[in-house]
Amino acid sequence: MSAPVSQKIVRRVAGQNVWLGYKVEDAENNLARLPVRAINPEVLETEEAVGRAQLEEIRQAASRKEGDLVIVLLGGRGAQGLYSILCQLAQTSEADELLGRLHVFTQDAVAPMRMDNGLSFVRDFERLLGEAFFRKIRSFTPMRTDTNNLEGELTSYVEKLESLGGIDIFFLGLGPEANAASHLAYIKPGSGASVRDVAGVIPISSSILEHHIKKFKVGGSLVTERDETECRAATHILTLGPAAILGARRIVQSIVDASTAPAKREAFLRVLTTEISENPQTRAEQLDENPGLWLRLHPNVRSLVLPDVLVA
To answer: What's the pTM?
Structure first.
């Protein structure tokens, strides 16, 4: 489903959401023809074990490909085990060759906001991965949020991602939503995302902002009063879209926090067990109502979970 670099990105409005994507002929019928696949989660005992499995995914991708690798980082808890390992490795020369091949991208961002705001994912990644990691990788490309032209900056972000050959590994989690639905990256239920959309600008609610602030504080981020004030004034979240997910060569999903976010259990179970329709319109409606289902249409997904994710 990946689009050629030369293809023009077009703007599409769905309600209050703006999607940036590609003009694809017969997109809905193409979506309906994608095979539906089962996800068979691998149960690992600890977050560290999940992190080591994620690192092994990067190593294997590097062994299969010449040149640079493009990876998309996961915010939240799902990859913090990986980031701890990478931070330690970056203090040595053990993984310098591997790190030097990585083009690293983020998958979503609160906007508008200063890039040095303590509540931005960029600051959190810097805290978790450490200064040495960012010195050693090939490049780091976050979504720009310090701009009056969010759509223009997001378009430039997508164009850079495609110019590097697309995504080799997309690290994803799973966010719970009402009625056991779920979101991926920040593709929310009812946001109108389609198979052709590579990125979007999504309105954000005050309740989500409060949750974001609380989560970052609990996680240990250094947050000033100015940071909080600016974050509460944010209006949107930037996100990668379904076309970016389907176009990635490998998806590595991780769910490690069901003990503190128990709604993820029911949401994940629904992703695993939903019967996805072959009818184009019905399938599109199912995916919009429960975006976690996009993973069921990808041919190369590995799902890593802790034991408590599958506990009823």
So the answer is: 0.94
Across residues 227-245, what is the average pLDDT?
Answer: 95
Could you tell me the domains of the chain? 38-310 (3.40.50.1360)
One DSSP character per residue, 155-214 reads: HHHHHHHHHTTS-SEEEE--EE-GGG-EEBTTB-TTS---TTEEEEEEE--HHHHHHHHH
Q: Are 65 and 166 in contact (CB under 8 A)?
A: no
Rounded Cα–Cα distance for residues 47 and 61 (Å) = 21
Distance of CA 10 to the CA centre of its chain: 21
Q: Report whether 194 contacts 283 (CB < 8 A).
A: no
Mean pLDDT of the chain: 94
How confident is residue 4, by pLDDT bands cut at 50, 70 and 90?
very low
CA dihedral (240, 172, 75, 42) in degrees, to 10, reads 180
Burial of 62 (0-12, 13-18, 19+ CB in 10 A): middle
Strand order from edge to edge, sheet including 169-172: 42-43, 301-305, 251-255, 169-172, 69-72, 102-105, 139-141
The span from the CA of 302 to the CA of 75, in Å, is 18
Res 5 pLDDT > 70: no
**Nearest-angstrom CA–CA distance, 259 and 42:** 17
Identify whether the C-beta of residue 194 lies closer than 8 Å to the C-beta of residue 242. Answer: yes
